[in-house]
Write a structure and sequence with these properties.
heterodimer; A: 443 residues; alpha/beta; Ubiquitin-like (UB roll); Rossmann fold; 3 domains; six-stranded mixed beta sheet; 14 helices; globular; B: 287 residues; alpha+beta; 3-methyladenine DNA Glycosylase II, Chain A, domain 3; Alpha-Beta Plaits; two-stranded antiparallel sheet; 11 helices; 8 strands; elongated
Amino acid sequence: MLKTFRIGGIHPKENKLSAGKSIESIPIPSEVIVPLAQHIGAPCQPVVKRGDPVKVGTLLGKSVGFVSANIHSPVSGKVKKIDKAYDSSGYKRDCVFINVENDEWDESIDTTAALVRDCSLTSKEIIDKIFAAGIVGMGGATFPTHVKLTPPPGTKAEVLIINGVECEPYLTADHTLMMEKTEEILVGIEILMKAVNVNRAVIGIENNKRDAIDKFKQFAKSYPTIEVQSLKVQYPQGGEKQLIDAVLRRQVPSGALPISVGAVVQNVGTAFAVYEAVQKNKPLVERVVTVTGKHVANPCNVLSRIGVPLTDLIDYAGGLPETTGKVVSGGPMMGKAIARIDIPVTKGTSGVLIIPTLEARRKLMKDCIKCGKCVNICPMGLNPTTLMTLTEYEVWEKAEKEKITDCIECGSCSYTCPSDRPLLDYIRLGKGKVMGIMRARKN
Amino acid sequence: MNMMLMAVGILGAIGAGGATILYFIGQKFKVYEDPRIEPVQEALPGVNCGGCGFPGCNSFAIACVEAESLEELNCPVGGADTMASVASILGKTATKAAKKIAVVRCNGTCEHRPRKNEYDGATNCAIAAQLYGGDSDCSFGCYGLGDCEAVCPFDAIHVNPVTLIPEVDEEKCTACNKCVVACPKNIIELRKQGPKSRRIFVSCMNQDKGGEARKACDVACIGCGKCEKVCPFEAITIADNLAYIDDDKCRLCRKCVPVCPTNSIWELNFPPPRKKEPKVESADVEA
């Protein structure tokens, strides 16, 4: 019996069209746009100005505050301007525009492919290095990694869980990375274990990636503290709390952090980025992006620099099909439909999904028939239909009592609703409002 | 007969006893309420819209009674008349607040502001605002999904199905502020209604640079500053590429209206400009 999380969950069609395709590097365009807000938390303060020459790895934006991350130049060239441009948020925000010249890397970065296994740094040095490299959660939530690795005082991590689940349909970026950079990821995990001071790590991989499980099991033989755990395919297993439940059989209490049950969760992509940052001195300047869709000529996994417009990625995959109805940044469940495709790749862009018109249209909302499907599948054990109604009528106290802030925005409720009600849309709105009220009360 | 009298007697005694107990309990737990609250509340419109800043008419009435002066208190729905009657009940003087009205500061109709994409999510501006800046290149403009219409207790604001921009019904709007709060883009503002409902305002919220704003919408304010220069009363300021007319300073001279290159300054309810009558030859009249 394979492990999985115990509350709710769905199994949407996997549609992993780009599975098994190797990572291809995408050519660098003549201009890149690097947003200064690519993470959860405070946007960066720009430290370059117009006309400044930059190399790959030059600091562009300095992190302000604890929950923030540095941003480095993904290309070499000259800073064209610092101006507002559209990014995946759908709004214009501050970005650094860089005119690309050649591809010169900063001298301190080790660009060779050789594996560096030994790491003699202390926990603090590792976390400082991760902070300097501007690493954020690569699964899509873009939460600064150094914050997660610094547990609040009085708590102690027991086990590091590595998220190789990739439960989103269509996306294969993590899968491909696991296949091609297995050893690097394992070294990254060792470094992360050192950073949080634990001597046990578990990699959770869903059973639809048999090849990755086998490969990790084979390589993990020389890493005795790292276990590989295959998991039953179930969405949203990649959610932090769901993965902890699946792997450790521990439930994170409402409103608490995973550290309260002794767990720290990191994505495989993050583990790879940590390896590159600590062992190769390479800041986070590129990531693997899945470009996919049913009518896309060549669904693929590309290694793209940050700041490359999505148009380049789509062109690389064979161009925008005529049938395009929607372009989604991320996966179909948690991704976000974007209004324009000239926005840049950011640290959190895990995929570009092109949905044909027929499938893209949302159906007309009908009345709730009180079937309770959404209640059954909610992985957080919430009552989505009530939460939607409470948001509609703005009953914030009741919504808070019903734990609206526990929602992980996985979208399972909207997916399963037979009346096509936009449950998540409303719950997300209510969650934001209630969180605002709670913050205001604290201050 | 005897039985009947007995029944009447017993019931009467129970009733009298109960009344006495209730009387004493009533006296014991009596809560003093200012007798002026009730007449004040009756003088108020009683729609509980919250436009005064209090949860409802009752709380506003209590606030009026308790306040030393009525200076800070105003019922936007009832206006000066209601406040005058409240003042006369309480023996205080009411300050006359200028009547205000909701103004929609976006004119990005489908014609002026070409739509670039289609939104098919939940019909709710606040939800759309979480996702993106809007279906045109202007990320400051109206979504046209009608949060203001849904929240209005007076049925005074409606999204025009052709232009997709909300329109305020001057007769019905009471300046209760609900739509102002509901709009996620802060497009709606309460402005002085002005004499004969005449008012001038910049019907745009676009803070992009002039070129970009103009490209996104024909009637966007491009922040050129011509209105600021021509205004004799220093009522117009430009901040973030956007002009704003201060309705406290504006004297409705209308000088700014014709100089605006994009026609983003609106004048409402003014008589049409007088045409110069052609001079008639006096000789002809005599003849």
